[in-house]
Amino acid sequence: MGKKSRVKTQKSGTGATAAVSPKEMMNLISELLQKCSSAAPSPGKEWEEYVQIRALVEKIRKKQKGMSVSFEGTREDFFSELMTWGAECGASCDCFEISNFADEGYGLKAARDIKAEELFLWIPRKMLMTVESAKDSVLGPLYSQDRILQAMGNVTLALHLLCERSNPSSPWLPYIKTLPADYDTPLYFEEEEVRHLLATQAIQDVLSQYKNTARQYAYFYKVIQTHPNASKLPLKDAFTFDDYRWAVSSVMTRQNQIPTADGSRVTLALIPLWDMCNHTNGLITTGYNLEDDRCECVALKDYKEGEQIYIFYGTRSNAEFVIHNGFFFEDNAHDRVKIKLGVSKSERLYAMKAEVLARAGIPASSIFALHCSEPPISAQLLAFLRVFCMTEEELRDYLVGDHAINKIFTLGNTEFPVSWENEIKLWTFLETRAALLLKTYKTSSEEDRSMLEKPDLSLHSRIAIKLRLAEKEILERAVSCCRAKRLHFQKQLDEGAPLPLYEESDIALLENADAKLPIILRKLEEEDESVQEEMNLAQIKPDAACVDSSKTPVLNGQCKDLNGTQEDPPGGDAVVKESKVEKHDPSTKRTEVASLVLPVKGGSKVRK
User: Fold this and answer.
1) Residues 255-267: pLDDT tens digits?
2) Environment class of residue 524 by beta-carbon count within 10 Å: exposed (0-12), middle (13-18) or buried (19+)?
3) Which of 64, 346, 501, 564 counts the highest number of beta carbons within 10 A?
4) pTM over 0.85
5) SS3 state at 138
6) Which helix (H) or strand (E) holds 159?
């Protein structure tokens, strides 16, 4: 990502199209805030609302042209300063150097051979930008009075980042000057590029992300100009939409949860140097050592001198990578398509089905996922579908009798069908649902592949079309798999094959030593953590009084206190994974980091 990097120089309006009076700007900001705070549009009108909000934002951006604070020079000009600062602060800087990896952008390169599980990187707390450091900064007085800042750590971090960027003596300048000048998150997409995401499962989150960011910007613009506790903020003279978009994207692609110094709770943080690592398949290898009060990362595998060092960002789908990180990851082993299923309350057998599902720890209505792997469904989804398709007699077998409870353990096990008829019904149902989802796309897979062959396709359009195609390919594989399963079980039924019978002695094969619930029905969240997460930035209401600080919005990734999507919620997690990056394809470029799950040494696992 060798783009121009923001460096500390006030341009005093250089390049602005025309002088804008404070009153004129405040009127535009008020109009934007009102538009973004209105009632949610009726179904099918979301795109129309997005276009209207975008038009207002573009009008504001045009009048703010040349008014942002920026840095002179390129991003890479400051990497040596970052490494020097890190070493002075006590970070480990001997095992790696920052290098440009072409399509993947900047990352960490091994300066010597590194063994798998070797501790090669640690970052002390003093280097981290956190909600706590924001409270102790020039932002503190406003934080103490603004309930939105108190409720939304991600927004606090974004404003903290902007304030420190404008402070010539900020201790974090060596870090801030190395951040990208812009990002490839949907907040930076042109309208026509966003249009490629229509009909994808990412579109609602993308539209909500833009609306929420615009609302937050308008709200804090007014606060910064009018609130007494904001009078000393360096943002008072220069706080543009582009500034806020940059800060939000910086936080969204990098934030993680770490424990506070006393270990009593978690806080959000930006982690310099570590956040330069690119993503690959693997396991989470980063944790927080409370004893030494530092973030620590061990090597995911053996690295030879000169090789790129990766971390695993978490089990994110490509939709989540696009929304929160601005890249499409080839060969994503965790890619999936969401599917919402539920038992209708008007159904005659609703009570019985809901009871069987409750005993298995599965809600009667939830969001599941069709995976890119084989088979495309998890044990939780298999269990749900079996119950969903049960007859009254079959339901009774799982509700009453001496062995009813034990039979719950078999619901998610492929070895023990409820009946051949039940299997046929569930695979037929799922095949039909996947086929219907495929029909919602406006283009075919073949048309998408043809579009990707165009040499003049923009990076953002390429990312969007790749995501759209990946969703279709998952659904196409699901349809094919379901058809094969349906035909297999139909053959079993036609041939009168004996149904595998569950024996009580089989319970040992199904139990998990650490769980009292069925092995694969333990927790629905384990089926697909990030499917349930909200992505993008959480919405902010213009009236601070209406914000309940006890309900912290979710932010990017799998972190429950980060950025979110949807109209009110949002979601981050990060780790390392090995990937095969398609050569010469810029859409595979990866932002250096994604939110991460930081286990705490000697304590419980801290998730973000």
Assistant:
1) 999 999 999 999 9
2) buried
3) 564
4) no
5) coil
6) helix 153-165
